[in-house]
């Protein structure tokens, strides 16, 4: 059976996904309407991608060693998310509802 990933589950919650979509639309429209902002954003995006790739390369050995602990933490977080979803039905609705 496929291991659940708590981050993927959180991102799939309607309240979270609708918020992310709204933020993405606002970010894109701001970039489109302000040329100076677009160039600043592009430089920032390239920097984040480069830093992210470098960080992942440097962290890979540590992540491999800590994989069992990550699996335990992920399972606990998934159980906690199950509990939250049960207790807070509003998580299943988009922000506008």
UniProtKB/TrEMBL annotation:
Q: Which GO terms describe its biological process?
A: lipid metabolic process
Compartmental location:
Lipid droplet
Give the UniProt entry's GO cellular component terms: lipid droplet
- Organism the protein comes from: Toxostoma redivivum (California thrasher)
Name the family: Belongs to the perilipin family.
Q: What is this protein called?
A: PLIN1 protein
- Keyword Magnesium applies: no
What keywords are assigned to this protein? Lipid droplet
Q: Which Pfam families match?
A: Perilipin
């Amino acid at each position: 059976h496929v291991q659940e990933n708590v981050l993927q589950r959180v991102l799939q919650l309607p309240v979270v996904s609708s918020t992310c979509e709204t933020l993405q639309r606002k970010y894109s429209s701001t970039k489109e309407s302000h040329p100076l902002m677009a160039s600043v954003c592009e430089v920032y995006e390239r920097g984040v991608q480069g830093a992210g790739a470098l960080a992942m390369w440097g962290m890979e050995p540590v992540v491999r060693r800590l994989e069992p602990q990550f699996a335990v933490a992920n399972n606990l977080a998934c159980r906690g998310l199950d509990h939250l979803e049960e207790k807070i039905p509003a998580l299943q609705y988009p922000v506008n509802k």
